[in-house]
Amino acid sequence: MPDFSPYIDLYCERTAAGVMNEPLNAISNASFVLAAWWNWRLHRAQESLVGFSTLCVLASLIGIGSFAFHTVPNTATQWLDVGAIWGFVVTLVVLLVHLATGFRWRYTGFFIIIGVGALILLYEVTGDALTANPSNANTDAFNGSLQYLPAFLALLVFSGLVSFYQHPAARNLWWAAALFSIALLFRTVDRSVCSTVPVGTHFLWHLLMGVTVGVLLRGYRVASARSQQAECYGDDETQRQ
To answer: Do 147 and 138 touch, CB atoms closer than 8 A?
Structure first.
């Protein structure tokens, strides 16, 4: 068997090197794959959406990347884990902005630039809290959870916007935001509860985030279907005129 030492130890459940030393943290990643599969299964018979299919693939990759890290915790699998998560987040944000701007890329680019600027400002204000090396996550009070603050704030902004416009996807986004906040709590307290909960709470972060991703996929599908329907009606009105 390959020697996995030195290994990265970030979570309560891991007590030594070994592929199955984090069984709950590893197996709970199935929630991401199941969320992607379930959403794709529900909508595969409907009109094909490249963006939706891409998000389903990326959601599955989150589960695969995180499973790899929790079984073979080294630097390579750690960045595979982080890369898959942010690949999904960035793609979802871009697609939501593109949808909200009426599928106009120039407007999408404008708002993305504003978002990137706000993110840079957030980094400047918080210092190293959001950019710390993930390998040192368990040395800060938030156990590395602050790296997800930008994604959580973006979700709150989108939830507020769709609610303002009374969009049917609003319920999905608010549910996702609520689940995200609870999941972050479980991720944050993982190391601090080791004495009372030996397996930790990180696996609950995985399970809840799997549900969150599933709700977000559903919300995006509802939003994109609504936008396509509006475009079709708009075309019909134009032709009647």
So the answer is: no
